[in-house]
Amino acid sequence: MTVRRDFKGPAGCRSELVIGQEEATAAAREQLGRGGSVLLHGPAGIGKSTVLRALAAEYAPTARTVLRCSATESESHLPFLALADLFGLVLDEVSATLPAAQRTALESALTGRGESTLQRDGLALRLAVLSVLRALAAEGPVLIVADDLQWLDSASAELLGFAARRLGETPVRMLCAVRTEDEDYDRHLRSPALGFARAGGPPCPPDTLSVRLGPLTRAQVSALLDHRGYPGLPRSTVRDIHRTSGGNPLFALELGRALAESPTPPRPGEPLPVPTSLRALVLDRLRMLPDEARRTLLVASAGARPTPALLHAAGRVNAEAECARAAELGLLATEPEGPAVRFAHPLISAALYAEATAQERRAAHAALSTAASDPIERARHLALATTGTDPEVAARLAEAATLARDRGAPSVAASLGLLAARHTPAGGEVGPDERRLLAAEDAITAGEVDLARDIAREVLTRATVPAERVRAWMVVIEAAGQALGDVDAVFPQALADAGDDPRLLALVHYQLAWRGLVVGGDFAEARREAAHAAELAARGGDRRTELMALAFQASTETLMGHPDAAATIARAMSEPQDPYVACHHNGVGSARFRFLLMSDRLTEARATITALLREVRRRGMVESEVHYLRSLAETELRAGHCGRALDLARESLRLARDTGIGEGASAMLASLAEASGGDTGAALALAGEAVRLAEEDGDQMYLSRALAALGHARFVAGDAPAAVAALRRVRELEPALGITDPARGRWHGDLAEALVLTGEVAEAQQVIDVARQQALRLDREGVLAVLDRAEALVRAARGETRAAVAQLTSAQDRLARLGIGLEEARAAFALARLRTSGRPGPTSYDEAARLFRRCRALPWLRRVEAAALDRPAPPEQVPAALEGLASMERQVASLVMEGATNREIAARLFVSVKTVEATLTRVYRKLGIRSRVDIVRLAAARRAK
């Protein structure tokens, strides 16, 4: 269809939502904004048409004329059809400007009333197309929007290509899309499969920007499904959709639709239902294979890592030749990675498996159950080849699940455990529900909390044994994460099921300790519950729960500044130990790490957390990995390794969002890392997200840390009043929680410095005094050094410059000795600002800049550079009349002489506006003048001399 528009308004009209192609869209938008052309390319279903429509809607208002065409495969044999779509409605407007030969040839080609052909009228047609575009562009900019260029008829492609190469500076932009399955863009666009190959490439100007659209990430697939009406899918299902679709948005949506329409969703471990619409994409090619070759590919689709050797062992004697034929048809990858047989797209494998009958699938799995060398694979195939219950098959699956767990593959263990439960007959020594619960606990470890919760809820519908019911309740609680308020009703039921069994009661009271901390916001109550849980577990002989409870008790005592913290950690570390608890993020190792970090023993803390991270990765403990990535980032941030901290924090956040575990805490830490080593805008957004998530979950413990991160981000961004507002909330929250250790959040220095900038000097001193008292009691030397830095700024605001410089120098030395690099650099920066005030100092910021550069603290480095360019007046410019004033008074008066406002003076001297006003009042009194106008007169008298 051809569209003609007159430009009547600005660009930026509402366009179709684009998910997952933001980077590609931004590149295309920048090119179009410069007046250039764009060619979008990628495989079928990747979103080219969606991006094309969005960009066309945004940029169409900037053109006077918009020409559109969208080719189809069924019409690609019709010559000049695309040209007719583009020019049909505008030809009458410009035909009179064309030479007679061009007009005749073009009208004949577009209307079909003559016998115009490229062979007979080639030059006239080529010149006619170029003339039409130039005539339209003479009236205003032209935008050509062409979708599915791969189906463009060859005549139209050749004519458009001729014109595009000769447009030069003519204001004609092209926005096109073409299907390219091959990532080698140039090779594919010139392949014989495309109608414009003979023209030497696509019909676009030579400087056209080619933008390849790539597959979506798992998080983007999840967002797309939510947006298109398939929300709330379990994360394990979204993972399967992402894997099967290969990140292709069209395929993902079709799979989501099939799941929504299916009356019986697949059980864990079963393949997704592949709708007919997607099967049709590959079945035509599959039908070109002989039956035996199709059976070989079915065996390959059933295998986890198929190889020619595996296929041979499974009875497929002609596997190499059959796979070679499949590769020729585009079903298998033409460039295999090592010995593996790899499908060209995961959907091909899924469609092939879905199309097979149940009997064919069982036969494929039966062959693989003896051919596979790995015991886990053999057990899985045996289960899928067997119908009904079978105690021997169930036992082999349970053994395979144990092996997978030992290998650090808890997700595989969960899948095998569910298969074992399905084949376990009722009434045996080990029942099916016991195996389901073990699978649910493996799913928790693997971060698949939706699956774990669903399994536990299913068990609770029929279980009568108290131990099984309590275990199931524990899974439900664990799956809730930080949103423990959502499962409040579970606790009374779990206590009732536990009865008077100390082992079961210990499990419930351990979770009640977490509830007291997260929902109630009461550290003292949480500590009491943890101690009670440890006592019950010891009485019941459950060493694992006892250690978990002791570790929790130690963590709360550390954060509270409780005097028993070190002794409780020692109890938690006594023998015998449990390897699982030793590395768990709520276990003994984590409690010891927190104690080391808060004591500023950074080298030991780093070694401890690095070892823990290595171990949980080996075990596949996803939630612990998210937690320890965050903890290692915090350690590096404290040490002043901001670049490393930023990388770790971002990795933790990606994993948290991918699994839905610890998103708020990871956003909080990522905010701190961005504020120190990245972008303050991102820091503010992440802190806001962390606050929102903590409030939604009712998580008081992380709310205080999220607010501290928000206050820090606002402070670094230069918004002191907003920083004060956030940090005052933290000051109110923490005492109510029972937190007295200032090393927990280390926000006190930020609040005091922000209060100085807003003129609340007395309140700043009060914050410092309270925090100092607790830091002295707990021997928090790093906190004391930061408080010294903040107090030095309070003294500077009061005009005590010499004392402030001495205190800052001492604070910087202490922070350097402790290895707290970023805080050391901040002290150097504050010191440079005080020393530079009132004297020339183009190099006085060098030390602060060096330290921030060493830390890779980019936001702070930018502040140093800005301060270095904004120096107060040198002392030789100060008139003799001001020599009797104190240092701060002389600096303020000198800046008034330069014409600076009170706000500008406050920013340049690193003090508050109220401090400037109070200082000016003293200046007026000492000089015997009444206003800043009199100071300006002094400046004028100096210039007259």
TrEMBL record:
**In this protein, which residues make up the domain named HTH luxR-type?**
878-943
Listed A to Z, the keywords are: ATP-binding, Nucleotide-binding
Per its UniProt record, what Pfam families does this chain match? AAA_16, GerE
One of the GO BP terms on file = regulation of DNA-templated transcription
Recorded hits in InterPro entries, A to Z, give: AAA+_ATPase (IPR003593), AAA_16 (IPR041664), P-loop_NTPase (IPR027417), Sig_transdc_resp-reg_C-effctor (IPR016032), TPR-like_helical_dom_sf (IPR011990), Tscrpt_reg_LuxR_C (IPR000792), WH-like_DNA-bd_sf (IPR036388)
Q: Report the GO molecular function annotations.
A: adenylate cyclase activity; ATP binding; DNA binding
- Keyword field contains Isomerase: no
- CDD domains assigned to the protein according to its UniProt record, in alphabetical order: AAA, LuxR_C_like
Gene Ontology annotations for the cellular component aspect, listed alphabetically: cytoplasm
This protein's name: AAA family ATPase
Q: What is the lineage of its organism?
A: Bacteria, Bacillati, Actinomycetota, Actinomycetes, Kitasatosporales
